[in-house]
Amino acid sequence: MVDTPSPPAAPPAETPPTWIPPARPTAPGPAPGIEYAGFWVRVGAYLIDGVPFFILAMILLFMMMGSMFSVFRDIGYPPQGFGYDSPEYQAYNRLVTERMSEAMGSFYPTFGVFQLASIAYFVGFWTWRGQTPGMMLLGLRVARDVDGTPPGFGRSVLRYLGYVVSWFALFIGFIWVAFDSRKQGWHDKIAGTVVVRRSG
Asked: How many CB atoms lie within 10 A of CB 190?
C-alpha cells in the first residue's frame, strides 16, 4: 500500500498590525500652548469687525445717492434738441456741477469722521486689550513679537499704518500672512507684532 502524501499545512493566518493614529502635529508657535493665527481665521475676525463699518458705509451711500437724485429732480434732465457743445447744454452742465458740489460738500466731513472712527476702533482696541471684538470672538490677540506683551499705543498706530500700506499694495500685505512662517502680514512686520491664539 502506497502512502499518499498529506497536503501541506495552511500557513498560519497573519494577525493584522494594530493601527495607531499618528499624534496630532503641533503647530509652531512662540510658546507652549500658543500658535500663530492663520490667514482665514484672521480674515474671519476682520470681517466681523467690518460689519458695523459696512452698515455705516451703506447708509452713507444711500444718502449720497438720494442727494444726487434730488439734484436732477430739482433742475430736471438735460435739455433736448441741443448738441453737447451748445451754450444751453454747457450751461446745464455747469449748473449740475455746481449743485452736485453743494450736495456732496456736506458728506466730506462725514467721510473724515468715518475714517477717524475706523482708526480709533482698531488702534483703540489693539492698545486697550490687544484684541478687537472680532478677534475676541475667535480667540485671537495681537502681541509684540519679541516678548508676547500687548502692542501698546505706538505699535498699534504703526500697525494701522501698515494696514494702509497693505491696502494700497492691492492687499498683498494681507495675503502675505498665508505664506509667512510666523503668519505675519506687512502690517505685523512694520509694527513688530504677531497674531496668536491658544493651540489645541
From this structure: 19
